[in-house]
Amino acid sequence: MGFISNLSSIHLDILKEIGNIGAGHAATALSKLLNKKIDMQVPNVKIVTFDEMMELSGGADHVVAAVFLRIEGEAPGSMFFVLPPEQATVFIKQMIGDEEFTFDQLGDNEIATSALQELGNILSGSYLSSLSDFTGLALYPSVPALSVDMVGAIISYGLIELSQVSDYAIVIDTALNEDDVELSESVRGHFFLLPDPDSFHIIFESLGVRDNG
Amino acid sequence: MDEKVEIIKVGIADMNVVSAPNRIRTSGLGSCVGVVLYDQGKEIAGLVHVMLPDSTLSKAGTLNHAKYADTGVKELVKKLTQFGARPSMLKAKIAGGAQMFQFSNTSDMMRIGPRNVEAVKKELAELKIAIMAEDVGGNSGRTIEFCPKSKILHIRTVNKGTQEW
After folding, report:
1. Residues of chain B whose C-beta is under 8 A from some C-beta in A?
2. In what order do the strands lie in the sheet with B15-19?
3. Please, what is the average pLDDT of chain A?
4. What is the 3-state secondary structure of chain B?
5. A161 has a pLDDT exceeding 90
6. How far apart are the C-alpha atoms of A66 and A174, rounded to whole Å?
7. What residues are paired with B34 via a beta bridge?
8. Which end of chain A is less congested by CB atoms within 10 angstroms, N or C?
9. Residue B142 has pLDDT above 90, yes or no
């Protein structure tokens, strides 16, 4: 439990900045890819229980499309890019140029699946490389995996490492959405960065901040 | 029939017990395993949402029993006994333990679903509790709901809808 109670407001600000820089680059990449304005929210750094973590993306039962990747290297962790079906459909339509596409077809449509996976790949790649530049740490993403399923089933996968140490997760959450579309909180795209417990002090140290500072 | 049916929700790494006509549910099981234990002759049941196979993996100071297969099942039996169930009459139905993502370099941590299932089965065998139904493995998330009256476990997945076990 120790690693969470040791966090000061400086640490939280650093994590927020990480979310800012990472998601900022990812939003730029998304904007270029779709040739659209993309709006990004101020990142949220929260210490949440596992159940609250599910609530962040609409509740454990909620169906989403999620790209998951493991971060390997000096500061391992998990990363999710979670899209609600509505927004995933919009993105896929634009990428494959098929206005007829509906979300139900995703399972049978290889091009759509591949497009969504590539979208996750590009976005998480730009998030991570900016994070790597910022901290000077070597971070390597695994090949991203795509899954369309219940939030609870997907997110709990990223909590496995953490759950051995704690009943809480520190999550760096940034929401993205298209500039001209008004969406409620639960239908926005979210980036979740979940550093492994041991990675926190590595990240802080790389930025010259001491653990207990 | 006018009795109000309440659905008791069990979160991740959590457990609870229920008696008829109420039902008990847990949502979004991925690699986690939902273990339902019920007394065959009475209308009471319990559910634990297990996240990890083995409490010796724990590096945390305080142990949340419901998080691990070994401690979770034991603790649920204890709770049910206090609730009026007879340990010798307990039966189990389990669901979950999916492999949500396929990775090429499958480390042990990524195989967590099958490991959770193995651990739950081992624990149930040790406690001599028979498994009456199981829907485990695969690669989809499940939401499960148990009715202590009919002893039916309803399992819902995104692709297959609701099935009864």
Report:
1. 11-14, 27-32, 51-52, 57-62, 64, 67, 98, 100-105, 109, 112, 139-143, 158-159
2. B15-19, B44-50, B33-39, B90-96, B130-136
3. 83
4. CCCCCCEEEECCCCEEEEECCCEEEEEEECCCEEEEEEECCCCEEEEEEECECCHHHCCCCCCCHHHEHHHHHHHHHHHHHHCCCCHHHEEEEEEECCCCCCCCCCCHHHHHHHHHHHHHHHHHHHCCCEEEEEEECCCCCEEEEEECCCCEEEEEECCCEEEEC
5. no
6. 14
7. B49, B95
8. C
9. yes
Query: Is B7-164 a CATH 3.40.190.10 domain?
Result: no
Does B122 have pLDDT greater than 70? Answer: yes
For chain B, give every domain's residue range: 7-164
Amino acid A22: pLDDT: 87
Summarised one tens digit per residue, pLDDT across range B6-36 is 999 999 999 999 998 999 999 999 999 999 9
Residue B2, token pair as written in the block: 């006018």
Of residues B8, B10, B18, B32, which has the active-site annotation?
A: B32
Q: How far apart are CA A145 and CA A67, in angstroms?
A: 6
Tokens representing residue B147 in the block: 């009715």
Alpha helices in chain A (DSSP H): 2-5, 9-34, 50-55, 85-96, 110-135, 151-158, 160-163, 199-206
Place of tokens 């759509």: A112
C-alpha span between A153 and B49 (Å, rounded): 12
As a whole number of angstroms, the distance between CA B97 and CA B50 comes to: 9
* Structure tokens given for A199: 């990675």
How far CA B29 is from CA of A30, A116, A118, B96, B137, in Å, comes to 31, 24, 27, 6, 11
* Residue type at position A177: N
Task: For chain A, list the domains and their CATH numbers.
Answer: 2-206 (3.40.1550.10)
Q: Which of residues 124-163 of A touch B (CB under 8 A)?
A: 142-143, 145, 147-154, 156-157, 159-161, 163
- Is the bond into A195 cis (omega within 30 degrees of 0)? no
- How high is the ipTM of this complex? 0.84
The number of residues making up chain A comes to 213
- Between chains, do B101 and A145 touch, taking CB under 8 Å as contact? yes
Is residue A81 helix, strand or coil? strand
- For residue B3, what are its two tokens? 């009795």
